[in-house]
Amino acid sequence: MSGATYPCRVDGEPAQATVGREAVEAAGRALPYVDLDDVTLGDHVVELVTCDGERLTISHLARAHDRFVAELLEARANARRAALLQWTGDAPTDRYVARMDGREVPVLLFADGLTLEPHDAPPTHVPLSLVQAVERDGYAITLRVRAGEDVVVRGLGRRTDELLMDLDAARAALAAATAAAYRGLSGELAGLSAPDGWAIGPDEAGDRWDALRRAVHAAAPEALDHLASLARSEVHYGIKRQAGGAVLPFCLARAGDRVAVEGAGEEGRATYVFRCPDVDRLNLALLAVSFRREALYLPAGRLGRWRLAVRTLEVVRWARDALVARVPHDGAWADKVAAAMAGG
Q: Domain 5-83 is of which CATH architecture?
């Protein structure tokens, strides 16, 4: 980021504007990007509005207008991406520009996901582990997403084939890494092809169900045995690969309209109980927030930068509303989680 200062007008008055790393500064005011929800690009006029209603109108940038806008949008996207729970922190492997609905939409491919980032709307994130098929129709690419809505990317022009090849390579690499992680969890799970971050039940696990259950329970036998006994309806198990190569085994245990989420082997563990009869919907929400559960239970005043995700992503708000209990693993855990699962 250059941090260059641009002569301009701010709200009609002569001033200067600077694109910083965390905020745009103009006429002695700083608007943090995590609060800058609305950016409207007019005829050589840039309208900025924060989530609190603070406004700036920047104009008369002359020949520097396009450079200023490009730097502003890039800096804002970088800062907001880091504050959105969908992003795991890895650098994108490639960037594209789609032309959709009359506007340019940046498309970023990561090792585990594809993100569409329009400057005037919340981003769309697609976990690659849930992409079941990729279809092409001319210059339109449709991603068929497991248990979720299809996502269409169009207007890539000559780079359409490139994105298709990159998607195939990324999906294959992620599937191989996930299979290796399952194999590392237990030799009995060699050959299991379950998606990263997705919990599966006995039908999908097939003859490896007992081995999967043993491998996950081994990380926290007392807690997971208790949750499995409370799950009158169903239990699903899976793993989520994390930054640095760590692997998080996890369990989703359902009893009626309550689902308990337990991450095995986590320090300072707590069990999260949601009112949600649809295990797949809850699993989608966990993937959408990269399993960062602090944004699902912290009160509004303690969210910090995660307030952006709560404010802009419907899936995060839904999960916060569905959460009915966070039960720390203390001496009273067993009774408390049983009461939460029973609706008490």
A: Roll (2.30)
